[in-house]
Amino acid sequence: MNKEGHVLNGALLAVGLGVILTIDPTTGSLLSGGDGGASRDLATVAGDTAWMVAELSLPVVLGALFPDVDTAFGRHRKTLHNLPLLVVFVAFPYLFGNLQFVWIGVATHYVLDVLGSKRGIALFYPFSSKEYGFPTGVATSSQWANPVTIAVTGVELLALALVHYYAFALDTSLADAGNVFRTAMGV
Ligand SMILES: [Zn+2]
């Protein structure tokens, strides 16, 4: 995708994820808290949601733009388009206490390039230069680029919502993952 597509994807994902993390429809009422169902009034819910969306927006959009820096150096769709780099972005906040949520933008950039654009990305670079794509992809210059971007974002949000509501809470699992990681690293 081009930069417009990645900004669109990052911005929509931040809004959707902010809503998913603050409003839990599985508790029976939209006004129930995620922490066991204490009722909240509409203004509180709207405020919490807006705050979460704002908190996610800038880091996610920045992360979504970052991988295409490799158009300027290195090898495009390889140097900054791989899972080893994503691991660095996921680990960074736990080690240094900043850059929270930027990895979400990097991850969604990869998803969009794999699912939404004709040319895939080298997920295992520098170990392998093979590029992985999906037949759903369109050319980045295609008139379908933005509709495909929106569709891919919708699929991402649906998957995230299903995981968050029915498998494990995305926000608490990150903290738990951090504790596990810290224990394993002895820091
Ligand atoms: Zn890219």
Automatic annotation (TrEMBL):
Concerning InterPro entries, the annotation shows: YdjM-like
- The residues that cross the membrane are 6-23, 83-106, 148-168
Provide any one GO MF term from the record: hydrolase activity
Q: Which UniProt keywords apply?
A: Hydrolase, Membrane, Transmembrane, Transmembrane helix
Protein's UniProt name: Metal-dependent hydrolase
What organism is recorded for this protein? Answer: Halobellus rubicundus
